Amino acid sequence: MKPCLKRAERKMRIEKAQEYGATVVFTFSNTVTHIIADKDIKYNEILEFLQLTEIPEGIAVTNPRWPGDCIRYGKLVDPKDFWYQVPGCPTESQQRNPLQDAPISEPIGGHSSLPSSPPSSLQVQPRPPPKQQPETPTNSQKDALDEAIEECLTTTPINIEDFLGSSSSSDTESSPESSPKRRKKASSSSSNSARDWQSHFQCMHKHTGALNPENPNSRTIQILEEMMQIYDSLKDQWRTRSYRIAISTLKSSNTTYISTYEQAISLPGVGDRLAKKIVEIVSTDRLQRLEYAKLDPKDQILKLFHGIYGVGLVQARKFVAAGYTTLEDIKKNATLTEPQRIGIERYSDFKQRIPREEVKQHGDIVSTALKTIDEKVQSHVMGSYRRGAKDCGDIDIILTKEGAGVEELHEVLEKLVEKLFDRKFLMCGLAIARHDDGTKWHGASRLEGEGKPWRRIDFLVVPGEEIGAAFLYFTGNDVFNRSMRLLASKKGMRLNQKGLYKDVVRGKNREKLNEGTLLESKDEKKIFEILGVPYRPPEHRIC
Ligand code: DCP
Ligand code: MG
Q1: Looking at domain 8-95, which of 3.40.50.300, 3.40.50.10190, 2.30.110.10, 3.30.1300.10 is its CATH number?
Q2: Is the Cα dihedral 524, 525, 526, 527 positive or negative?
Q3: Mean per-residue pLDDT, 312-317
Q4: Cis ω before 107 (30° cut-off from 0)
Q5: Domain extents in the chain
Q6: Residue 484's pLDDT band (boundaries 50, 70, 90)?
Q7: Which pTM value belongs to this model?
Q8: What's the CATH number of domain 113-166+207-336, 1.10.150.110, 3.10.20.30, 3.90.740.10, 1.10.490.10?
Q9: C-beta of 162 in contact with ligand 1 (< 6 A)
């Protein structure tokens, strides 16, 4: 590759990583979490360049494919995977998973300037200072538990490829025997049973989502939740995840008031920055960063634009950079796709939560129309509705039929959509994604009556044989799904939207050689059973 082309590519990669919240630095320090080398750079050249004899523990060295895949899959994929290895790197046992503290940079959406000629390696910072390592491990089961919880909470969001049923790097989780954090937790427990380590997965617990007023950390939780919502609305997955982990931990520590930096930093998933924020909340009863975020007009505008259907963060930033400050500005001046235009026109409709009763009414209209097409096709309202939410962000509907495959259901979907348009129930189509293993249709629907808001409605066709796995996945919530998936992989299985599998065989380059053996896909309860998880009704799957 020509040097100038290489430089341009590298610059693009850097900008992309920054867009997703990474901070890029060009000098080595103990805040670095990842070193991303150009693909022709060898491990020893990196050591030479950095003037090190070895890469310090906790820092991942990867090729440029890693940041690309993180963005593609919407998660921090494991940098130790084969695909991301730099030529000549030490074996896995010599490395440690660096992802227990997600890279976090401030402020939201901040960009740092690039030098005109970046060096051949770049580093992403900051990395919270290493945590106190535990004393001697006392309990091997607890060790496995801690490794598993950590991975579940920090490194395993839903993988797009799993979602589509194709290969995924998350099938093979690393051994639960090696985490220092797990040893730390081990000393705080005496139980030794396998059942006990499983009980620490989110999916093993009954969650109601309610904040316990008795919890001494209620105020901290409340403020962190507000901050998390801001990051979430900006699709800042790394920070959202860090906050979610911290909140989840604080919710479960019902008896301990977390008030010092030492206490905070010892919590799973809490790094230096978050620990400082917890201390700030405890000592000042507020979080300055939250107040700035609430005040910062740029954040507000970005959030406004990013809330438009079909507008991603990159596009929203471009609108801000172009000087637009209102939806009207964009409508008048920007080039928009049709779904984006509808997204602006129906902005306030799509932002409103939909009362449960109304979701039901939409669901009933769909199922009545379906009966006139094929009596045997069933529709099920999924997502937050199935979990019993009192209001929902959208209406998620699965279409399925005993014994039917995707092709047959796809035809039903086409007829259904046409019929619902004719009845003036569907107001617009926004997107359609057709895959061999399922078809999704996005649009908007409206109940009859003057001034009724348009609601976001999604249809998904699911072959009859896969309904159990699809039920599990589309009931969520997303954290519960991650937890179940991780539990499956810990037990040598693989769970996705299509089923629970065992024995997925991989080649030496980790390419998937078979789909594995299907254990269960039709019966949701059996999936729980095979995983050794007590069945949890949908309303108790809120993590
Ligand atoms: N899902 C998931 N991971 C994602 C997105 C979705 O596991 N990243 C699953 C779990 C969700 C379900 O799909 O519950 C439906 O997705 P929604 O985005 O519609 O989420 P909810 O229905 O849970 O919430 P809302 O009321 O906001 O629509
Ligand atoms: Mg939903």
Answers
A1: 3.40.50.10190
A2: positive
A3: 88
A4: yes
A5: 8-95, 113-166+207-336, 170-200, 346-543
A6: confident
A7: 0.57
A8: 1.10.150.110
A9: no
Q: Is the CB of 383 under 6 A from ligand 1?
A: yes
User: What local confidence, expressed as pLDDT, does residue 513 receive?
Assistant: 78
User: What is the spatial distance between Cα 424 and Cα 403, in angstroms, rounded to a whole number?
Assistant: 31
Q: Give yes or no for a contact between 26 and 122, defined as CB atoms under 8 angstroms apart.
A: yes
**pLDDT of amino acid 257:** 87
Can you give 201-236 as a three-state secondary structure string?
CHHHCCECCCCCCCCCCHHHHHHHHHHHHHHHHCCC
CA dist 228 and 489 (Å) reads 28
Options 3.30.420.60, 3.40.50.1980, 1.25.40.10, 3.30.460.10; CATH for 346-543 is: 3.30.460.10
* Site to substitute for ligand 1 among 244, 358, 477, 542, most atoms within 8 A of C-beta: 477
With cut-offs at 50, 70 and 90, classify the pLDDT of residue 4: low
Among 474, 482, 485, 543, which residue has the most ligand 1 atoms within 8 Å of its CB, making it the best to mutate? 474
Q: Which of 249-263, 371-385, 410-424, 499-513 has the lowest mean pLDDT?
A: 499-513
Q: How many CA atoms lie within 13 A of 210 on its CB side?
A: 8
Measuring from atom 19 of ligand 1, which residue has the nearest CA?
A: 383
pLDDT class of 436 with cuts at 50, 70, 90:
low
Assess whether the C-beta atom of 392 lies below 6 angstroms from ligand 1. Answer: yes
Q: Which atom of ligand 1 is nearest to the CA of 74?
A: 8
Find out whether the beta carbon of 78 lies less than 6 Å from any atom of ligand 1: no
